[in-house]
Amino acid sequence: MAENKKDKKKGTKREKVERKERRFVPSQNQSSLYSGLGGMAGALALGAGVYGQWIREPALPWAQYLVAGGAVTLGIALWFSDLGADPIRVGPVGVAVEKGTELTRIAWCDLKRVYIEDKALRLEGDDLLLSVPLAAHPHAAAWILKEAVARVPDALDVKGSATDGLPEPKDGDGEQVVVENLQITGRHCAESDTAISFERDARLCPTCAQVYHRDHTPEKCVTCGGGLAGRAYAP
Ligand SMILES: [Zn+2]
Fold first, then answer.
1. I want to staple 53 with a disulfide (CB 3.0 to 4.6 A). Which of 23, 63, 131, 185 is the partner?
2. Any idea what DSSP says for residue 167?
3. How far is the CA of 170 from the centre of ligand 1 (A)?
């Protein structure tokens, strides 16, 4: 009870709310489809060639060409598939790129500059640069821009014409998933510089996801200026 009273006075919510974000899988564009097929054909040719040249007795005279051709095709396909994209998450805490089971996140409050370069939306932080290829991720890019306008307009460095080809962000876009893998502990309170040793001590700005210690949460966010009283939430 005493704790609740204290929290009420501080104006910070204690209930743990399950936060959701949007998950976008890359669109199947033509080049990724072709590289997928090329990869399969290359692997098959390479396998058949290896069999014909080194395993089968007597070796087939044309097998070495199959090996070479298969290796080249596979190499080209791998090169192109490398240009493909990973799933992207966009939500209240920021943007994340999925690499297998790993999530690389950048919080809205840590964005220094958002710009478009080489047909990709770039999200630049102090020591992190996330790239969202526009061709593979038109909906994710549209949502990132929409959220960035509302949350961190000062970081936006995108000309209107550069986003002409992007779709309108719609409510049904992406798949709703629970926000996970937030790195809170180890951060410092933006107001008091107190190290956040326990996640339960953290309070987040609902606008830019800036992190504060529960005992030092100011009335207004020092990063985005948004009101925190009664709005800052426990992660
Ligand atoms: Zn904020």
1. 63
2. P
3. 24
